[in-house]
Design goal:
2 copies of one chain form a homodimer. With about 350 residues, chain A is α/β, with parallel strands linked by helices. Helices cover about 45% and strands about 15% of the residues of chain A. Chain A folds into 3 domains: about 60 residues, 434 Repressor (Amino-terminal Domain); about 130 residues, 3-Layer(aba) Sandwich (Rossmann fold), CATH 3.40.50; about 130 residues, Response regulator (Rossmann fold, 3-Layer(aba) Sandwich), CATH 3.40.50. The termini of chain A are far apart. Chain A binds a DNA duplex (16 and 16 nucleotides) through helix 3 and helix 5.
Chain lengths: ~350, ~350
Amino acid sequence: MAGDENSALRSRRGTSYDVARRAGVSQSAVSRCFRPGASVAPATRARIIAAANELGYRPNAIAQGLITRRSNMVAVIISNLTNLYYPEVLAELTQRLSERGVRVLLFALKAESEIDDVLDQVWRYQVDGAIVAARLSPEQLAAFHDRGTALVLYNRESHEVPAASVSCEFAAGETMLVDGMVAAGCCRFAVIGGPADSAVGEARVNGAIERLGRAGFDDIPMERGDFSYDSGYRAAHRLLNAGPLDAIIAANDVMALGAMDAARHDFGLDIPEQLSVVGFDGVAPAQWRSYRLTTVRQPVQRMTAAAITMLFERIDDPDLGPERRLFSGDLIPGATARLA
Amino acid sequence: MAGDENSALRSRRGTSYDVARRAGVSQSAVSRCFRPGASVAPATRARIIAAANELGYRPNAIAQGLITRRSNMVAVIISNLTNLYYPEVLAELTQRLSERGVRVLLFALKAESEIDDVLDQVWRYQVDGAIVAARLSPEQLAAFHDRGTALVLYNRESHEVPAASVSCEFAAGETMLVDGMVAAGCCRFAVIGGPADSAVGEARVNGAIERLGRAGFDDIPMERGDFSYDSGYRAAHRLLNAGPLDAIIAANDVMALGAMDAARHDFGLDIPEQLSVVGFDGVAPAQWRSYRLTTVRQPVQRMTAAAITMLFERIDDPDLGPERRLFSGDLIPGATARLA
DNA sequence: TTGAAAGCGATACCAT
DNA sequence: ATGGTATCGCTTTCAA
């Protein structure tokens, strides 16, 4: 029957053996033909290529991976994709990886608790390496080391078990912002932090508070959010209800935008005249005409490039030691903070 | 040397043979042990599991894929991830796929021209199926059919070569919006469309224009954008400079937000009193306090669920015919359009 | 229930 | 330059 014939055809759409038969050569010859630096006579190669094209043959990457122990796949693990900041990172990473001939196996966590299941899959799929923007326990980090899977942390760091990481330091950008606001006369600061268990969130908050302390401001009120717009909005409500403020420092842009909207629309405050608001990340919406947020932009391009370079170095040499690569952000003046 | 020993250990971290040796059974037994519905004695199983745990053994998915001809990987191909709408879709898809025990091989296109290279990789990696939110030529569609790779189009359709697809129809939502604005007295409409070669963009624009025609409004001015904020912003400038308007219909939310900002900040228009603006998609920023865009939200949850169901149906039965599944969006009244 | 053995589709070494 | 052959790590009959 036609149907059977079709599905038969379909299920085995060309292996190197089929190509070999068609070209009248050995299977080895076909294999060589698709490997760079092959040693195959021009005439033979032509016949093989022709046969391959007629069949629509493509080497089976799964089989290649099995024998070469190189899957040419890299796992990208991201904690919450819906965070406006990550799509840009993800796009950049996949783009760069694909230029290097490597495919992305994506894992998006809904909850951090899923990470063990994800790692289980990561081991099964024999990825050559992983770029992780999620919290890893020391045991989980050790597992990467034990299995010899290259690993680069993105905007996370590990202190117990050292690992390669690239991140954007909050401190430098923060210093600029805080100092600028202090110089401009701001004196009632508040901070909107991330969840207590978020390393990035804590680092940012601490950076700001420390700098403020150095400038003579202590007991800075703080509320925590979860990096979402709504949480920033609500945190601002709590802060502004608690007392007058003239500056809010948020741990990321989206919370800053929520805070701005709360201040403007619900408290009728003029920004930046009555209240300065600053964020961190440099996501696109923060620069929309209604916001023009004063913030620090993470150099995503350079950070992803670095992450990938580090990853490949470690794929090539699994014994390469840990290395932290720190980038500092670029100040985007915006129009939501009084800066001197 | 210790180094050599380590890397030796590392490179072969447990195969089923190692587990078998350790448990004193055959390799087949180990394999069965990890397959549901295995036929293995409880005692044996216990020994095997123990040995496997000690070694941190995980079945090699690559090898499994080779023999079973099932990679348990699905390709997700998305044209531009930076479009605010896609991260949500992607997150939803990966989540649902992983629940089904399937991994996502992600391909993010920078330019539609990259699609051929992407498909080349898709064939090599033996994915079980693909969900594609990008433009495919008839030849490319045919290739999926020829190779028996299950395919579901997401928010794209194919008319020349029929294929399974799920999309959100603009028409229904559009009708609500247009009729509402007409009833509320709007009478000078304009449209901001997507690129001319975008199928979704065209459908949305045509839906709106047709409905307006039915209501007695012809020669609707139109400008095209590329779905980005800036393009919406600029399009609004061109439209508003060309003549007075009291309603702008944009092909997506982000352009609508750009248009709003242009109208408010550069033309000093009150929204919705002087100008109604509506979008399409239902992205999160559109509901931020500064915007509260009147729009139609795509039922992403239902759409992704449907896409995945259709995909699995086609993985299980490659001969299943094409099917279009159309969803209609939910009106989000918002506060940027006068609706009766 | 268990083990032996034949593949899956490639690579790579070894002769020729 | 080419072909033969032994893997890679697993699944899956087929006997025992």
